[in-house]
Structure formats: C-alpha cells, structure tokens
Specification:
This protein is mostly beta strands. The protein has a single domain, classed as Protein Transport Mog1p, Chain A (3-Layer(aba) Sandwich). It contains one helix and seven strands; from the N terminus they run βββββββα. A seven-stranded antiparallel β-sheet has the order 1-2-3-7-6-5-4, covered by helices on one side. The longest helix has 11 residues. The termini are close together.
Length: 139
Amino acid sequence: MSGISLQLPGAWTVKTDGHYALVASLSARFNPTVMPWVTINICDDSENHRCPAGTLDLSRDKTCSALQRSIHEWPNGIRETRWVCPLMLDHPGLRYSSATTQFEVGKRRLLVYYLATDRDTPPITFLGDFAKALRPNDL
C-alpha cells in the first residue's frame, strides 16, 4: 500500500475518497471550478488497485493546441512524464493553464492534474516544486 501526505495552504478545501484520490481547490467550500485546483490519484499496482498500462500519453488530446510534453528523471529515482498546456482563454475571458503529470517509481504511480489562472502559481513551477519534495517512499 502506498501513501502520500502533502501540505496545502489553510484557505484550500480538500475532498478525498480516503484512499487513492484527492481534489483540492482555493475555495472556502469545496468547489472544483475555483482555481487553482489540484487533483491527485495514486495507484500502487496492488491486486485491488491496478495502475493503467503504459505511460501517460496525452498527444491526441484536442483540447490544447500547444500541448508540451517533457520527461524528467529526478535525482531521487522518480521518473516524471509531464504535459503542460500554456495559457488558454476561457469563455468568460479567464486566462488559465493546465498540467497533467505522472510520477513513477517501479509499478507505483502518482497522477497529478493542476489547473490555474494566470495570477496563480504557474503549472511548471507548481509541478517542479512538487517533484522536488517527493521521495520514492511517498509513492
């Protein structure tokens, strides 16, 4: 069984399934439409919680025309496949960006999705800081 702990600012509201998934947003009450927000899912390839086959591949995703992929081998033994969509414009004129990344250690995986406005911490900074804080035994 894998586990992860993280610390978010006190203003964030967190919702979790108690085992493998967490959603948090900068909102007084849980509201996944308030940005920034983060979704985290973990799988450990145990009998009851298998990981999807293969590495995360968003290359066919049509929602972002400028999707950028990068692969990172972190010094702590964690491999990361990151997909970032630079700033986009929402219907009400809100500029935002998104990132999806998969961290892997052996058969264990952590999937992180981050959505933020142009006034929030940029996805590349958020995920870089997140990755630097991870340890292989977190996954």
